Amino acid sequence: MERTRPLTGKIALVAGATRGAGRAMAVELGRAGATVYVTGRTTRAHVSEVGRDTETIEGTAELVSAAGGEGIAVPTDHLEPEQVRALVERVDRERGRLDILVNDLWGGDTFVEWDKKMWEHDLGNGLRVLRLGVESHIITSRYALPLLIRNRGGLVVEVTDGTEEYNRRYRKPLYYDLAKAAPLRMARGLAEELTEYGCTAVCLTPGWLRSEAMLDTYFKVSEENWRAGCEQNPHFAISETPTFIGRALAALAADPDVARWNGASLSSGGLAKEYGFTDVDGSAPDAWRYLVEVDQESPEADVTGYR
């Protein structure tokens, strides 16, 4: 195994790899040498309800291959059990194993009514949030784990928004709070169930992610001039590129002692301290520690000591 490509020979499935954190995690796994199956609902022929045609799973697969891995795009709606079953059967048929499963499925922002009380929030929209953020993860693990546990050393990564410490506070509205708390409990539960098979489950979160939508839709900036977004919200100064969480995942997957994290809530900023990687600009933003310790209502933002 090449020292600089520690995941050579490993087979990964990144569920929800169309854009953002999922795309970057797939790419960094590929850069480390892995073969990565990337899934999602937006392809060059079909756009999901998220409504963005600028990112596709084919595009992600090409980026994985360009980084040095092998990217394989498989259109999959992870709320459809038969599609997920077929996906896993394909991985088994083509590779005979699964070493890394990443549950990064989401797409629920469209349905979140951010300022509504639970009883005011449209019920259908709320339940859709839970299906996208919770049920999709359950379905995927149900079909993928029997393949993963065939070999000791497998890694399951539940992706959420927020560390266990930060998410002790209420992440309103209720449906969003539940959707982002559930992966933490899933990782805890799977950690118990996977131990006898020599496999590990963790929950991983990026910090304030400069995803495609965060840049071009919410802040209307680009990666090149992202600091202009601090004029709208000074705390945007703690934000990070998707590559940072990708590097966090690659470091975890390459760690021969990854089982020490079994059941843990992990973040990109926290793992950067452990493994020594940085974001693309050489900084190492620790967003969740910042968000816990700094008054987010303050018009002043000082990220000294946090990145």
Category from helices, strands and their pairing: alpha/beta
Percent helix: 25-40%
Low-confidence stretches: none
Count all strands and give the number.
7
Radius of gyration: 18 Å
**Overall outline:** globular
Mean pLDDT: 96
Strand order of the largest sheet: 3-2-1-4-5-6-7
What is the count of DSSP helices, taking H or I runs of 4+ residues?
Answer: 9
Along the chain, the helix and strand elements come as EHEHEHEHEHEHHEHH
* Estimated share of beta-strand residues: 5-15%
| Terminal Cα span | 33 Å
| Main β sheet profile | 7 strands, parallel
Oligomeric state, counting identical vs distinct chains: single chain
Keywords:
alpha/beta; 307 residues
Write the topology of this structure.
Blueprint: E1 11-15, H1 20-31, E2 35-40, H2 57-66, E3 70-75, H3 81-95, E4 100-103, H4 123-148, E5 155-159, H5 174-194, E6 200-205, H6 212-218, H7 242-254, E7 265-267, H8 268-275, H9 287-293
Parallel strand pairs: 1-2, 1-4, 2-3, 4-5, 5-6, 6-7
Helix pairs in contact: 1-2, 1-7, 3-4, 4-5, 7-8
Care to describe what's here?
The chain is an alpha/beta fold. Helix content is 39%, strand content 11%. Strands 3-2-1-4-5-6-7 form a 7-stranded parallel beta sheet, sandwiched between helices. α2 (57-66) links the parallel β2 (35-40) and β3.
Write a short abstract of this structure:
This protein is α/β, with parallel strands linked by helices. It is built from 9 helices and 7 strands; from the N terminus they run E-H-E-H-E-H-E-H-E-H-E-H-H-E-H-H. The longest helix has 26 residues, at 123-148.
